[in-house]
Structure formats: structure tokens, C-alpha cells
Amino acid sequence: MTDQAPSSRQIIITLLACAAALLVVHTLGRFIFAPLLPYFINDGMLTAQQGAQLAALNYAGYMIGALLALRWHRPEQLRRVLPAALVLNALITLAQVFTFDPSWLQFWRLASGVTNGIVFVQAPALVLEWLARHGRIRLSGLTYFGVSVGLLVSSGLVEWPSEWLSGPERWWPAALIALPLALWSGLRLWRLDTPTSVPQPDSGHTKPSGRLFDRASVPLFLAYAGAGLGYILPMTFLPVVAVEVLGGGEPLIGHIWLWVAVATLPSIWLWNYLGGLWGDRTALLVNYALQTVGVASPLLWPSAFGLILCAGLVGGTFIGTVMLTQRLGRALHPHQGPRLSAALIALYSFTQLMGPWLAEQWLVLAGNLSGSFWFGVGALIWALAWSLRVPEPHSVSRCYSAAGQKP
């Protein structure tokens, strides 16, 4: 291992490897289930209720994986656990090709969520630390292109072979792409040079504590909790809300998810650029404001315009929220970046679980799914309010040093 400055080629390959890892676990392993579910129901493989249960199990597994990543945050652990979880996720996708029993599918969806949570925390955190050591931290957001591209890829992998595949065979296209990508990405990330210890503060500063929660990080955690609930409602129910708003037979209903996917493509570059231009904290405030408008759009304008605006603003902001929050967290506490990243995502995944449950309670009260979006609007206003209390990273060390306190 070496701290020698990497070449441009090494940086590009590392970014691609991380993006490929996120594509494998977060789109081919997770998001692809959403467009597959209507086909599984039509094939008689699952019922709608079973599909909802499988989605909930996957969310729960994701939270478990993030908590495990919180435990396995040291550099030597990252190099072992990350490639193993990545390849295992791809093998789980392959295993679903041969799974007809819904009980076994429950196990695989839970396991897929666990490995997804581990990789989604560890891969960006590992690359973020690597880029930070080489003074290229502003490139870290580009790793999330894997999610953006993966949403489009997964849509095509479901639609193109839909006429000649049925039942669990529909997992074949995802599995055939996921496995070689996972092997290549896992090998590249395993070879990535990592420090033997976490960064230490300059001698002029007080030695940092190991606490995750302090007056600098707590507002960031509380804001991120709102983000998890705010985005998951439209990302889960927007196609159904489109049916409620427009009625059946409208062409937009079948393409609303494509609008979301397309909106994610420029979002990574945009929020990476704005974070560098304005600072990550200011960019995050703007991100939350736009995302709030997006979730509220179908409620304020119950029309095709409102639905497209929701798809564009939510699709164009939610990955930026993750990227900016993770980078801001590391800037606040550079001595425990991977651990802070894991804790943030664990909280984010917990509030994601609350979204479908709140929607279900709203339906029990004779509401509709469109109305449940108000929960998301409220959650994002909460996130925006707490983000205003997040300190600028460069002011944190000065504040603690002047007060003689530990962060």
C-alpha cells in the first residue's frame, strides 16, 4: 500500500468501480424489484400483498446491513467485508432466478437488503476516504452515478425481455450483469490502498472523541431522518398516485418511473458542482427546498404537470441529498468518516421503513396515497429546518479549540 498520488486513470477506475458496486446492489439488487413486481403478479407468482411484504423485508435488511457497516468501519475491515458483501449480493440476485417459493424469496430479499446496506455504506465511504487523502474529495459525488445509470439500466432489463421471460426467470438479465460487475468492482476496491489507521488531528487541536452524536452532528442526523421519510413515499408510490390523479389508460402512468430515472442522471454532476461552488451545507439547504416542492407537487397541482414535476424534482435531488450529507458529515468529523456514514444511513433506512407504514395507516383512515405525501412534505420541512442548524465544517474546529472542548 502507498500514499503516492494516484494517476487520473487510477481515479477514474476507482470511481467506476464504486459506481458499479452501487449499480449492482442498489439498482439490480433493490430498485429493479419495483418494475418487476407487476410482472410477478401478472405471472401468478406473487400477490400484491406478498410484494409489499417483500419490499418491507428488503428495507429492513438494508437497515441491518447499515448497522453492521457501523460495526465494521475500520480500514482493514472494509477491505475484507466490502468485496464479500458485493459478490454475495450478486449471487443472491442469481439465486432468485431459481426461486419459486415465496418463503424462500422472503429470505433472499432480506439477505439482499443486508448486503446492499453494507455495500452502500462501505463503498462510498472507502472511496471518499481514499480521495480525501489524495486531495480529490470533490470527486466523491461521482460514485453515485451508479445509482442514476442503474435506474435506467434496470428499467430496460425488465421491459426488453418481458415478452419471452416469466416468473423468476425475469431475474436472469439482472443476474447476468450483476455477477461480472460485482467481481470486477470487488477486486478493484479490495486492491485500493487504505491507511492503516484513521486520520489524526493536527497537534494544535484537541484530540477528537469517539462520540457520533454531538452538537455539530446531531442536527445533521435529525435532518437526514426527515430525508429518509420524505423521499421514500414518492419513490414507492408515485406510479400508483399517477393512477389516482389521471385515471387508468394514460400513457404517462407507464412512463412516470422513466422520468424519475432520467432526472437522476444530471443530478449527481449538478449537486457535486453546487457543493463545490456554494459549500455542501448551502447546497443541501437548496436540495431540501426543491425536494419539498417536488413531493408537494401532486398535492398542489393534481395533474400531469404536478406528477412530472414530482418525478423530476425528487429524482433530481434524492441522490444529491445522500452525497451532500455524507460529505458534510465527514467534513464535520474527519476522524470517523466511515463510522459516521454508516450511522447516518442506518437512521435513513429506519425512517424509510416508516413511510409505507404511515401510508398504510392513512389508507385505513379512508385517505388515499396522494394524501400520504403530506407526511413526506412535513418530513422534508423538518429536514430543512434542522439543516439550518448544522454548522459550517470549517467553523467546528475553531469553535471547539477556542472553548477547549472535544467535538
UniProtKB/TrEMBL annotation:
The keyword Transmembrane appears for this protein: yes
Keyword annotations: Membrane, Transmembrane, Transmembrane helix
Alphabetical list of Pfam families matching this protein: MFS_4 (PF06779)
Transmembrane segments: 12-32, 52-70, 82-100, 106-127, 139-158, 170-190, 221-246, 252-271, 306-328, 340-359, 371-388
InterPro entries assigned to the protein according to its UniProt record, in alphabetical order: MFS_4 (IPR010645), MFS_trans_sf (IPR036259)
GO cellular component: plasma membrane
Name of the protein this chain belongs to: MFS transporter
Annotated source species: Alkalilimnicola ehrlichii
Taxonomic classification: Bacteria, Pseudomonadati, Pseudomonadota, Gammaproteobacteria, Chromatiales
